[in-house]
Amino acid sequence: MSVALMWEARAAEGCGAELLAWARAQGLAVAPVRRETFRAPGDRVLVITWWDAAYDADLPELPEPPGDLVSRPPHRWRFEPVDS
């Protein structure tokens, strides 16, 4: 089974580059099968990690970023693949 963890945050005004750099620098205790980092207008940063694990497995996630880098707490979601 596999699961994807998504982490998305909106940077504080003028802090988009700093939030992106912070997210990219965050290591995880265990390496995921795959990890991708995205950015979007509005200084949003998205990190998706893929894991070979059950949906409810205890998996490492990105920590909370420093409060001065974000305009709100990050959103976090878990997704599981759907057969086509």
Explain the overall architecture.
- With 84 residues, this protein is mainly beta.
- It has one domain.
- It contains 1 helix and 4 strands.
- The protein has one helix spanning 16-25; strands at residues 3-10, 34-40, 44-51, 75-79.
- The protein has a 4-stranded antiparallel beta sheet with strand order 2-3-1-4, with helices on one face.
- Strand 2 (34-40) and strand 3 (44-51) form a beta hairpin.
- The radius of gyration is 13 Å and the shape is elongated.
- Residues 63-84 are annotated as: Disordered.
Q: What are the SSEs and their pairings?
A:
Layout: E1 3-10, H1 16-25, E2 34-40, E3 44-51, E4 75-79
Can you tag this structure with a few keywords?
84 residues; mainly beta; elongated
Number of extended strands: 4
What quaternary form is this? single chain
Order of SSEs, N→C? EHEEE
Mean pLDDT: 96
For the terminal residues, how far apart are their CA atoms? 15 Å
How would you write the strand order of the largest sheet?
2-3-1-4
Question: Helical amount among residues, as a percent range?
Answer: 10-25%
Low-confidence stretches: none
Radius of gyration: 13 Å
Shape: elongated
Short description:
With 84 residues, the protein is mainly β.
